Amino acid sequence: MTKRFRSMLVQVFLFAERINVGGQAVLEGVMMRAPRAMAIAVRRPSGEIAIKREEVPPLSERFPIVKLPILRGAVALFTSLIMGLRALNFSANEALAEEEEKEELSSWAMGGTMAVALGFGILLFFVFPLYLTKLLVPVIGQSNIVFNLVDGVIRVAVFLLYIVSISRMSDIQRVFQYHGAEHKTIFAFEAGEELTAAAVQKYSRLHPRCGTSFLLIVMLVSIVIFSLIPKLWPFWMKAGARVVLLPVIAGVSYEFLKWSAKNGQHPLVRLIITPGLALQRLTTREPDDSQVEVAIRSMEEALEENGGYKDDRLVV
Asked: pLDDT of 179-203, one tens digit each?
């Protein structure tokens, strides 16, 4: 397919009813998600752009119950984790030096990797702050309100420290540039622009529907929801309850993100989403034109695979 035809195809979608498109930066590339499709574009060492795309039917087609508020957010989180890991696996193989052997992860290996990553995240961001707060009880006293506030502050501090730490790693800088390219391309698509590097580069690298903003919302929502856990429960029951409540927190955070995306021009909403946008200054970098070209290619392939299907699903 020629570049000109691809551009014409994108314009057809631009004049159609707007659909929600999201994405994720991967190694030397970008994964874009339309409501019914996913496409990954990765720059190989030779300069060629490798493409992988596939139709991804919404889970709600088989299980209509997942359309329900809160539940749809929990489902979206876990499906995004699965698709994100698959995209990273593909990008890692394509970004390897050509002389190196490529090896796809098996379903079991992929599942194990996701379980380890999810477990690490739960321990670091939810169990560890609880343990530190428990140690501080002699200092902060027995007030349940103070306990939950201190716990929440520690949780947010750990999250921010983690973001700052990884943002300083040299190896992650290019991923953050592709993250910026992803946001700029989505902004251009939403504005009805022709998807060229020059047009896309005009837009901001900070997007209100970013996964970074979503994670910050999760941290803040968890402060409220965890306050419902009975104070007198032992440590292990409190820690277990936090794991059980994670889908609820994800669902509530998803609904808030969906609402804020639809009302982003309201002054109060803009004020509320400002911390998330500020945090993206750490997780995005300004991309060069070659990186933007990869993001555009991923968008075009996702739209073509999507085939005109649209819904009101928010893709994070």
From this structure: 999 999 999 998 888 899 999 999 9
Beta-ladder partners of 34? 37
Q: Quick one: what percent of the chain has pLDDT higher than 90? A: 33
Contacts 24+ apart (CB under 8 A), 112-121: 113/85, 114/81, 114/82, 114/85, 117/85, 118/81
First to last CA, the chain: 29
Task: Please report the DSSP string for 179-227 in residue order.
Answer: HHHHHHHHHHHHHT----HHHHTTS-S--TT-HHHHHHHHHHHHHHHHT
Within the chain, residue ranges assigned H as helices are: 3-15, 71-94, 107-122, 128-135, 137-140, 144-167, 173-191, 197-200, 211-226, 235-262, 267-283, 289-306
Amino acid letter, residue 46: S
This model's pTM is above 0.70: yes
